[in-house]
Amino acid sequence: MNIPVMKQAWLISFVLATTVCAAQDRTCRDIKFPGHVQVNGNDLTLNGLGVRKATFLKVNVYVGALYVVQPLHDPKPLIESDTPQQLVLHFVRNVGVEDLRKGFIEGFDRSSPGQSAALAARIAKLNTWMPDMAKGQQLTFVRLPHAGVQVLVNGVPRGTIEGDDFSRALMSIWLGAAPPNPELKSGLLGGECD
């Protein structure tokens, strides 16, 4: 048998197996997420899954799933990206609307210090769209370059908040220097979901 042909066959098999594995669904905390989603005609790949933990008791709040055009482990290009992205927050416990609103205000303050005034009206708009979230419900943010962020609650569009600055600040909540908890950021960047 021809050795170079065998090497080529092995290489092709390896590449196909790697591609198939990368596209598979993933599960975290018994919640299954698809390996790919479609956003405005763009195929987005699951970059990672992470768990939001709250309080000193490390109570699980939601599992986040980040979908991107090109998976990366470096947060900076993901935050600065001008390609579509989708962030899904699947709640694993009930969260009241006031806690959600407070969380967004604190998240923007932590992730974008000094930008609060420029973002204030848009953060307030986002917070008007927030309901109480029950276990099993989803909050989805679809990043649309040069248009803003579309917000969906359980698959129902609430609207789009304009501005690439808002979009970057929103993604910085989870991927920036001060995420809600380090395990969440690590998971969204492709690390373990724990």
What does this structure look like?
The protein is of the alpha+beta class. The protein has one domain (27-188): Chalcone isomerase (3-Layer(bba) Sandwich). It has six helices and nine strands. It has helices at residues 3-22, 75-80, 97-111, 116-128, 164-175, 182-188; strands at 26-28, 31-33, 36-39, 42-54, 59-68, 85-91, 138-144, 148-153, 156-161. The strands form two sheets. A seven-stranded antiparallel sheet has the order 3-4-5-6-7-8-9. A two-stranded antiparallel sheet has the order 1-2. The radius of gyration is 18 Å and the shape is globular.
Q: Per the principal axes of the C-alpha atoms, what is the gross shape?
A: globular
Look at the structure and give the mean pLDDT. 89
Element order: H for helix, E for strand: HEEEEEHEHHEEEHH
What's the architecture in CATH terms? 3-Layer(bba) Sandwich
The CATH class designation is Alpha Beta
Summing up helix and strand content along with how strands pair, one would put the structural category as: alpha+beta
Radius of gyration: 18 Å
CATH fold descriptor: Chalcone isomerase
> What is the total number of structural domains?
1
Low-confidence stretches: 9-21
| Number of H- or I-type helical stretches | 6
The major pleated sheet works out as:
7 strands, antiparallel
- Beta strand %: 25-35%
The rounded distance between the terminal residues' Cα atoms is 47 Å
How are the strands of the largest sheet arranged?
3-4-5-6-7-8-9
The counted number of beta strands is 9
Helix percentage:
25-40%
